[in-house]
Amino acid sequence: MKKIFKGDIIYTKNSNSFEVHKDSYLVVEDGVVKDILHYIESIPSDYEYLDYTNKLIIPGFVDIHLHSSQFLNMGLGMDKELIPWLNTYTFPEEAKFRDLEYAKTAYTKFVSDLINKGTTSSVIYSTIHKESTMFLMDLLDKAKLRAYVGKVNMDRNTIDELCENTNYSIEETEEIILSSKSNRVKPIITPRFVPSCSPELMEGLSKLAIKYNVPVQSHLSENTNEVKWVKELHPDIENYASVYNKFGLFGQTKTVMAHCIYTSDEEIELMKKNGVFAAHCAISNFNLSSGIMPVRKYLDYGVDVGLGSDISGGNTLSIPQSIVSTIQASKIKWLESNKELYPLSFSEVFYMATKGGGKFFEHVGSFERGYNADLLIIDDSNLSDINKFDVLDRLQKYIYSGNENNIIGVYVDADKVS
Ligand code: GUN
Ligand code: FE
Asked: Is the ipTM of this complex over 0.95?
């Protein structure tokens, strides 16, 4: 399968600058980028030609932290901090996913919104429930989206309906791993966070992760009360990150930790050493009064950072809105730090939203040769006069002031997503 997409191509190969190819041709073979050409005399007959002249062609957005099961709660419960928010709004909603019919309705709406917002790769939490998790995986696969999906594991400090038997939680997780066959939608081990996972559960999940080489996702240092609680639960372990590390869930296989606001320098160093990704969830951090992650510090340490919508702590799946909030948050952090932690630039954050988070999937989020041809077609004609603005300014205007109506095409591996 060979395809050529023509349009105004823009992406980030590194975080400091954009690669811009106006009026150019993106050449794709078997879903993988082969080349970008500025001139083609005639389209070879064995290529399908997709002419998007005057439209922007950008990488699909990558969301490396979100809770699909909280989709119907989006916009609710904005009056509490993390722990009461979980107990009051989030756990009761997640308990409903025991009912497969409820899950089908909710997840169908969720997947449709994910596509509308142009998110082609995502790292997702479902709930503790095996059947509805497998339904979601199948739905994403049929939609041709790329994703890691994690059945949540919890065996302490949650409501009765969500509190699992430790062995059963591990067994069901293994069943999902063994039954998943898709190349695009894969399982990820998901101990919710330290307060809701016993040491036995964490150890068991680590063994599974290593046995099957499955990645891991969890939450780290999102809220000051949460950090205190972890210290009370594990007084002998020096810090929150080290709890995961001690139980084999911190980079022993590919790992992403969400939030990472109240981490010490030692913890950030451990993330760097173990190759742990950070998912920055700026919008959720505002909504739950969690705080502002010092992203610049992570970049200085060389930690991989991607963006997470973290619905329904976050109130939208829109990665463009996460990009804007991330830049705004970094400017406040700059002021708060006496102008030490320099604000994030547009290219740095666009990179996080594409190639930075995409690294968790390997060759995702860029148009360099060998990358998966996951792309969005953006019609920005209502936002910019293309004769007046260059391609980069048009992109920035779209990210800051556009919306999903500007997205007229979504492709994963050069296949149209629907
Ligand atoms: N920490 C543990 N569970 C959650 C969750 O569902 N959302 C957020 N934002 N933080 C969490
Ligand atoms: Fe979260």
From this structure: yes
